Each structure stands twice: as structure tokens, then as C-alpha cells.
Fold this protein.
Amino acid sequence: MAVNTTWVFVEEQDGKPAAISLELLTKARTFGGELGAILLGAGSEDLYAELGRYGAAKVYHLTPDERLPTAAAAAAIAELVGTHEPDLLLFGLTSTDRDVAGRLSARLGKPVISNAVEIGVDGDDVTVTNEIFGGAQLVDTVFRAGAPFIVVARPKSFPAEPGAGDGATPELIPVELPAVGQAGVAVVTGRHVEQQEGPQLEEAAIVVSAGRGLGSVDKLAVVEELAGLLGAAVGATRAIVDADWVPYSRQVGQTGKTVKPDVYIACGLSGAMQHLVGMKDSKMIIAINKDEEAPIFGVCDLGIVGDVHKVLPKLVEALKAR
Ligand SMILES: Cc1cc2nc3c(=O)[nH]c(=O)nc-3n(C[C@H](O)[C@H](O)[C@H](O)COP(=O)(O)OP(=O)(O)OC[C@H]3O[C@@H](n4cnc5c(N)ncnc54)[C@H](O)[C@@H]3O)c2cc1C
């Protein structure tokens, strides 16, 4: 048994496929075989075409209503799996994807391997690589439970690249969201788009991140000023998210976002392994910390042992003078 069919779960976000789903389609193309997308969203001709450019030959389209769709989506996918018997199901490490993958795993009685940073297909074996100890160690796990194999992958583990050529428009298969009893009664009552200035954290070429070493919330102003001057996004450790200095959407790390910018500037953060997991693959890491023993110095390319309250204003001053 080789992997003949791979399906990638695609959540529609602002009329487009979520970035992680394009990364997963790109990766899935390398496995050969048939590639399908399970789209959860309103759908559009442009979106189907985009999925085609990334290699999807079929799009199973689930249109959500006002209900929270994850329980019903899992039930619909479980039914599709029974009919079409795909070998590999790929999800991203996002709230919706994780919710669907977990429910699907329970429905199918199949394991799900999460937090994947690499997926390998070799004959009958599907191997999933995870990072542990902040990425210091890699663990390979091979499925032994038989297909379908369910994998949840970390964002930015694979580049998102369209396939060669224009990509044929995929075959569209509308799929009903079934009733799922009590699991499906939650309804979405509102959506809030967070106000944001500057670049998206996950997409920014430069990220300036702040940690507890800043001392207090008002000291964040200098980090924001530096980010503004550099055209950077502001990131944060969980410590300052938990302290309510910044919203969760800025958190970088194991339970936050994964970033891979060209430059990551870590200001007054220790470099706990749960933080490193989310930023250690940045191309250039610059760390400012007053403790020369801080773990962040173990991963940085340029380390400044010093007080953020002295170093950051100097940096801002120097940038303004340019
Ligand atoms: C299950 C789990 C998941 C987690 N997920 C995440 C996650 O996604 N992201 C995340 O970030 N954390 C996460 N954490 C928390 C993580 O373990 C750390 O507690 C957290 O990252 C520490 O944040 P920090 O570096 O801001 O604070 P600290 O560890 O307290 O570090 C503050 C640093 O600032 C330095 N400092 C102090 N004053 C100054 C100064 N004036 N100038 C310069 N440097 C100074 C200190 O030397 C110190 O190194 C998780 C923890 C658990 C258990």
C-alpha cells in the first residue's frame, strides 16, 4: 500500500485559502498520487482555481451555515473517507483544523499525529517528524494503525508554491454538512477582526518581540517604535500575553504563532524552549538580554548583553538619525 490519495483540509479565510493549507498542498504534491482539498468556507471560482494551481484535482466543498462548523465538518469528512478511502489527511495547526482533526480521529478510530514539521512517505510507511525540547531533538513517528493517516502540521514547515503550469480547474464536489446532534448546536454569534497596524506577524520580514524583561506594559512603546521604524511586526512571549500587556494574537511559540522572518529581534525575553519553537528558524536572530546566561543567546546570531531600557532607545535613536 502506498499513498495513492492525499486530502488537505482548507479553511477559507477572507475569501482565500488559509496560508497553511497552501503549504500542505505544496508538500502533498511531492507524495504523488491524487490530491484533493476539503474546503470549509463559502467558496468562489477564484478560490477553486487557486487550489487547482496548488495541485488539487478535486475540491470537496463544505459550506458552513451559522453553526460552529467543526463537528459537522468532521462528520462529513468521516463519511467521505468511508466512500473514497484516502490514505493521508493533512491539517494545519490552527484552531479550526485541530478541532476537525481531533473529532475526525475519534470518529474514525485512527490516531492523529500533531505538531509535524516534516512528513515523509516511503512505500507503506508514513513518517511524521516532531520537534521536542524546543527543537533541540527531532522525533520520527511511523503510523502503524493503517490508513487513513491523520497529520496536523505546524505552519511554515513547508514553503507554499504553486505547481508548474496553470493547474487545471479542480472537479468540484459539494458536500452537505450533516446534523450532529448536541455537538452541532453551538452557533457563531459574532466575528471580530482585530485592529492591526503594520505587517502580519506570520508574514513580516522583521519581527521585534518583547518579553517580561521590559518590566512593565508602558515600556512596550519603545519596542513598538523600533518595529515601526523597521517596518516590523511586534511579537511577544506568553509571559507578557498572560500579563495582559498584549493580545494573544502576538504570542510566538509552542502555543502561539510560528514565525520565520529574515530578522527576529528578541528584547528582554529569556528564550524558553516553548518560545524558541516558534522562532528559532528565523534567518537572523538578534537578542538583547541583561543576563549573559539567558538561553536565547544559545540560538542567536548576534547577542547584546545589556539593559533593554538602554539598548533599545539607542537603537531607535540611531535608526531615526539615518
Ligand atoms: C505548555 C506551555 C506552553 C507555552 N507556550 C509558550 C509560547 O507559545 N510562547 C512563549 O513565549 N512561552 C510559552 N510558554 C512559557 C514559557 O515557558 C516561558 O515562561 C515564557 O516564554 C517566558 O517569557 P519571557 O521570556 O518573557 O520571561 P522570562 O522567562 O521571565 O524572561 C525574562 C528575561 O528578561 C531578561 N531581562 C530582565 N530585565 C531585563 C532588562 N532590563 N534588559 C534586558 N533583559 C532583561 C531576563 O534576564 C530574562 O532572561 C509556555 C509554557 C508552557 C508550560
About this structure: The chain has two domains: 5-184, 206-321. The mean pLDDT is 94. Residues 211-213, 237-240, 251-256, 268-270, 272, 274-275, 278, 288-291, 294, 307-309 surround flavin-adenine dinucleotide (CB under 6 Å).
